[in-house]
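Chapter summary example.
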Amino acid sequence: MVRVILPSVLAAQAGGKKHFDVDAETVGDALRVLPIADLLLDEAGELRPLAWVYVDGTDARKLGGLACPLEGARQIRIVGAVAGG
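The structure predicted for these 85 residues follows.
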């Protein structure tokens, strides 16, 4: 079981829930079961560029991305990137 923590903006889109406890083998599995999966993953099922995912504090992209195994992981934190110019 891993806890997925959402930022306030995404929590509002998830019915006000700020976290979800999910059973998942990989980061991708965990994200796909969330009610906001379409906001995190594109049409090809890849992580959207402005969605940052951290597994126990480490960027999931450095751990294998969506294929990152969650065995022993306690927390996934999703952070919406800030963009502008």
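To summarize the output: Residues 2-80 form a domain with the Ubiquitin-like (UB roll) fold (CATH 3.10.20.30).
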